[in-house]
Design brief:
alpha+beta; Elongation Factor Tu (Ef-tu), domain 3; 441 residues; six-stranded antiparallel β-barrel; disordered C terminus; single chain
Length: 441
């Protein structure tokens, strides 16, 4: 019993020491909280301004970029993707059978109509021509003799020296030989044409492709591959399709005169050749709802090649002296399209507009904006109706910062000693450079 009393005393001492430590911690936290509140209330204005700049909203003029609405003539194009097609394509095939003696062209060579491309062995065909000529000479001699006999028989028949029947028979023989000579002449012409076929000539102006047969081979008129293929590259055609809803506009413009068509590169839309629309197909493809069109291009620099895909744009109209603004200025809301117009007092006001035509870079405004109006193109993040703005240069120069007297509590100072940065030109705030708080002592 006497040995346990000191143990109870030690436990009581430990409990008392723990309670004091907890009270000390609570008092310290309360003092820290009170000190922080007093510092927040009575801190210098500069410190509060920096704190508000980090967590508050900027209420100064909004930096923006702007552009001026202008009057311009705007072309109206219809864009499509077309397929390039040679104006004429000919597969040169032999018209007679025989040995190919020579080839008179190089692969990829430009040839003219009538140039000799190949020579087939003409021996047998020359012999057939000579035979036809000889046959005609033989029959011509018989005809001449029969005509002489007919002349004598007619003289004798006139004096009743011979029977009239003999004269008539001779007349029939002359007619027979005359027909034979005409037949021989036809045979000669046929043999001559066949002989001419042994010399293969270019049927059109164009460029030769890869040769399909070499010298020394036996070629046949029934060969499907032929000797070579010639394509006419100057001029050249491009076939493309347009949706049927544009058909009436195209026909109306086509009826007034030739329509200009530009062929463009697929990577940067640069115009590589300019041609004219030649054909609008006579029916709409019911399966796709499109109509096929054909345009011809001079292709002087050979920028278009058969089988190549090409971007084309068809000029169907030109809008004269219309109001244009950058497409980036056009905004869309629940009530439709609108822009921010900068007034003379550098305040932005919302103005509803009606868009007549729009592409990636330019918008034609039918109503709502007049020429020389300034519209905001960049910096919509904090922009509202009636906001004051500072307009920067379109060359990338940032908008000037607001004067020091206009900075209110919560606005950041541009390039201050504390590391704060001015808002960007597009209206979005840049992150401020903050210094981490010191650890409590």
């Amino acid at each position: 019993m006497h040995g346990e009393l000191p143990k109870i005393g030690r436990i009581g001492t430990l409990v008392t020491s723990g309670s004091r430590r907890r009270r000390f911690i609570i008092y310290a936290l309360v003092l820290i909280a009170v000190g922080g509140a007093l510092y927040y209330v009575f801190a210098p204005a500069a410190t509060q301004q920096r704190r508000a700049g980090r967590f508050g909203a900027d209420t100064g003029p909004v930096p923006v970029l702007a552009a001026t609405a202008t009057l311009a003539d705007v072309p109206v194009y219809l864009d499509a993707v077309g397929t390039t097609k040679a104006l004429n394509t000919v597969t040169v095939r032999p018209q007679v059978d025989g040995k190919l003696l020579s080839v008179g062209f190089k692969e990829g060579q430009d040839v003219k109509k009538g140039d000799v491309l190949a020579q087939i062995d003409p021996t047998t065909f020359q012999a057939a021509l000579d035979q036809a000529l000889a046959k005609k000479a033989q029959d011509q001699a018989l005809l001449n003799n029969a005509q002489n006999d007919l002349a004598r028989y007619e003289q004798l028949a006139a004096t009743n020296a011979i029977n009239r029947q003999q004269s008539d028979t001779q007349k029939s023989l002359v007619a027979q030989y005359t027909a034979q000579v005409q037949s021989d002449q036809a045979a000669i012409e046929s043999a001559q044409a066949t002989l001419n076929y042994t010399t293969v000539k270019a049927p059109i102006d164009g460029r030769t492709g890869i040769r399909a047969v070499d010298e020394g081979n036996i070629v046949h008129a029934s060969d499907s591959t032929g000797i070579v293929t010639i394509t006419q590259l100057k001029p050249i055609s491009v076939l493309f399709n347009l949706p049927q809803q544009y058909l009436s506009q195209v026909n109306d413009a086509f009826a007034k005169g030739p329509l200009k068509v530009d062929a463009q590169r697929s990577d940067n839309d640069a115009v590589i050749d300019t041609g004219a629309l030649t054909v609008v197909d006579n029916q709409v493809d019911a399966s796709t709802g499109t109509v096929r069109l054909k345009a011809d291009f001079p292709n002087a620099n050979l920028q278009l090649w058969p089988g190549q895909f090409a971007n084309v744009r068809l000029l169907i109209d030109t809008l004269k002296q219309v109001v244009t603004i950058p497409t980036g200025a056009v905004q869309r809301g629940p009530t439709g399209t609108f822009v921010y117009v900068i007034k003379d007092d550098n305040s932005a006001t919302i103005r509803a507009i009606v868009v007549q035509k729009q592409d990636e870079t330019q918008t034609v405004v039918k109503s709502g904006v007049a020429a020389q109006d300034r519209v905001v193109t960049t910096g919509f993040a904090r922009l509202t109706d009636g906001s004051k703005v500072t307009v920067g240069a379109n060359d990338g120069t940032p908008a000037p910062a607001a004067p020091a007297g206009q900075r209110q509590r919560g606005q950041r100072a541009g390039g201050g000693a504390n590391g704060e940065r001015a808002p960007r030109a597009d209206g979005s705030a840049r992150p401020a450079a903050t210094t981490p708080p010191a650890a409590p002592q």
